[in-house]
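Might I ask for a little of your time on a matter of protein folding? What I wish to show you is a protein chain and, alongside it, a tokenised description of its three-dimensional fold. I should value your view on which stretches of the chain appear to form regular backbone elements. You will find the record immediately after this paragraph:
***
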Amino acid sequence: MTHTIKKLDKNLINQIAAGEVVERPSSVVKELLENSLDAKSSQITIDLQNGGIDLIRITDNGIGVDKEDFPLLLEKHATSKISSVEELENTLTMGFRGEALASISSVSKFSFKSKPKDGQHAHQIDQNGEISVCSLNQGTQVEIKDLFYNVPARREFLKTPNTEYNQILKLLLGYFIAYPKVSFVLNHNSKQVFAFRAEDFQDRVAKVLGNKFTDKSIPVFYESSNLKLSGIVSKPEFCVSKKPEQLLIVNNRPLKPDVFSIAVKNGYGSLIFPTQKPQFILNIEIKAQDVDMNIHPRKLEARFKYQSILFATILKSIRQALQKVSLVKNVEIQKPSLDSYLSHSPAGKSDGSSLQRPSLQGSSYNPRPQGSFGPRFQGMSSYMPASQRQSLMGDYSPSSNHQSAGLNLDQTNTQGALENSSQNQDLDLSSFQNSLRYLGQLSNSYLLFESKDGLTIIDQHAAHEKVKYFEIRNKLKSVQKHTQKLLTPLEIDMSIPKIAILNDAKPVFEKLGFDYDINQNKVLLTQVPANLVKINPEKLILELIDDFLNADTKNLIELEDIAINYAACRGAIKFGQSMQPLEVQSLLKSLDELKEEKYSCPHGRPSTIGISHDELEKLFLRKK
């Protein structure tokens, strides 16, 4: 059999091209919608039937098409948007290939109507090229019926109407947000789904994604001669682990965020857990010659000339935006019903059978551990006369484990400082948030403050861990090493994987302050970091190696950060450790000195939360 080369007929060529351009109904909607936007439309109506499988009709009030241009509408690579290579490289329009209408018309029952601004009549053209007069206001209407009716194999691969509709909806949301000054109406199966009037960006986002999205987001802005970046990113508390709302808009074109979602996440640093993902809408305005929109058949991706610079700019802008706002996590308390109170009150049950009296028999709970200055009196002590306070404290002085945690208090001046503060419990904390007034310590773990907004609670371990994190990181940058030689070198037997970690990450261990020699499966440890000298040396290095192994990375920068996290966690004030008011003052002073995120621990857990006056009033049924 002879296989001769043949030139394919026009219709077959268009159907093959449709395989790239027209994947499903949402692909058709995208192409037609972008044409309407390029036509400077301010009002666009989208009508769908059965998820766009049976009908897609898009009507706009754009500039329209002259009757003389109708014969070229269905010709492949015929377009009004570019005419040279230079224009292709500098185009800011949504489409420029001239393939869409030709491809779409080859796999559907196609109709195109248009009336230009100064035209006397509207005209229409069908898929056979027949042109006739019709009725239409200024603008264009494109109607697609029975998609893939003549390509049964393609039609069979379409999903259910509901699935196809959801794909279209997902696509449209990006354009609704990217073009807030355009009015959109969406009808599905003859029912109106959305109707957006022209509005500003913030209002449009709130309507599309909900008020909570905008309420829980912060603005981002950066501008230079070559680039403008704007948008909003979620506060750390509004980041999610699954299916985040993420949208990148480049020169008004919605695109997949791809690599830039990593830049956004890196901008959060340790404000969020590694498994959490930020939610964001970023709008990039960049010179057309610095971005290539022509790398993807359906224009879903773009290539940037200076991608690494753009990546770094986004990361830095996100970080700066987060530093400008209060990131105290506000707790929303569900208001209890009045019935829930009545059912546990004497009035609810006249015989009192519903009342449960608390019992401490057999309980391990101890509200004030023996030998400690209990939480209740810690918050009240400076209101007492010095003589009464001294009798309560006895010979108490801050314990040595506070010193090892790095609070560096001058114990000889502690008592005098407490006496000087006997008339005021504020302890000069105004620089941290909103003039916090120290109330006391709860369960030797949480520090309670009154602020102008309500109640502020700080997790003492998480907060001090962040202080230690930056303290250790800054020390690693200095030339002087803070190390402690062991009096007797310690020999430790280790497995081959652990020995491999010690070899691979030796620069990190040495930078931290470790020194050791390796002989087959034995490690001779001679030096440890000075700030971790109180931890058993063998336990210290083995736990650190385990952290490295669990991280599954050999990147030295990442391993160094893991090591800093480890050292900060072990060196910080412990959960359940008693603190004196002056020690609290020292901690908050250290937090104020941080140049970066002080509202979370290095692992991403919040260190500070707030309960507003409104939430407290709701809890006590004072406010609806």
